[in-house]
Amino acid sequence: MLQTALQFSHTLLQEVVQQGDQVIDATIGNGYDTRFLAELVGETGHVYGYDVQEQARQATIDRLGDLIDRTTLHLSGHQTIDATIPVDLPIQAAIFNLGYLPKSNKQIITLPETTQIAMEAILERLTAGGRMVIVIYYGHDGGEKEKHQVLHYCKTLPQEQFSVLSYQFINQRGNPPILICVEKK
Questions:
Q1: Side-by-side strand order, sheet with 71-74
Q2: 33: exposed, middle or buried (C-beta count within 10 Å: 0-12, 13-18, 19+)?
Q3: What is the pLDDT of residues 85-120, one digit of tens each?
Q4: Helices 32-41 & 5-14 angle (0-180, nearest 10)
Q5: Which residue of 20, 63, 104, 105 is 20 to 30 Å from 143, comparing CA positions?
Q6: Ordered domains of the chain (ranges, CATH)
Q7: Mind listing the UniProt keywords for this protein, alphabetically (predicted)?
């Protein structure tokens, strides 16, 4: 059976993340991806997480439980990666879930400009064979603009340096999420 975008995002990450790796959850939300990544990196790895909402940070802290020591959670947008992670720190993987925090204020959304800043910062740090996974939810005000920005940016990445995959169910009602995976060569 075909995997959902969420399931496939975890498959793509699980294939490349090992114990001891440094990874980024660029939109921690309710902490599901953060916990998943913390389990993958083990005791010797580290997850750097970002969100602008205290509600998201607290939900992630609660979900992490005893894995909290494997993480650094920033109460700031992912555009602050350059200011919070050294440029020479090798990042093996990163994930974004773009849109808004489920069951929260739908006016607080990820933005195309800050998302592009974060993607550029991650790709600068991404190791060869590393992956950046972006799940684009776009059925809200502002979502279409961000979707177009992300797709345009990823399509223009040089194929000599990156492979870019797009994954979406094209016969689903509504606005099915689009998964983009960028792998560094």
A1: 71-74, 46-50, 22-25, 91-98, 126-136, 178-184, 162-167
A2: buried
A3: 999 999 999 999 999 998 888 899 999 999 999 999
A4: 20
A5: 63
A6: 5-184 (3.40.50.150)
A7: Methyltransferase, Transferase
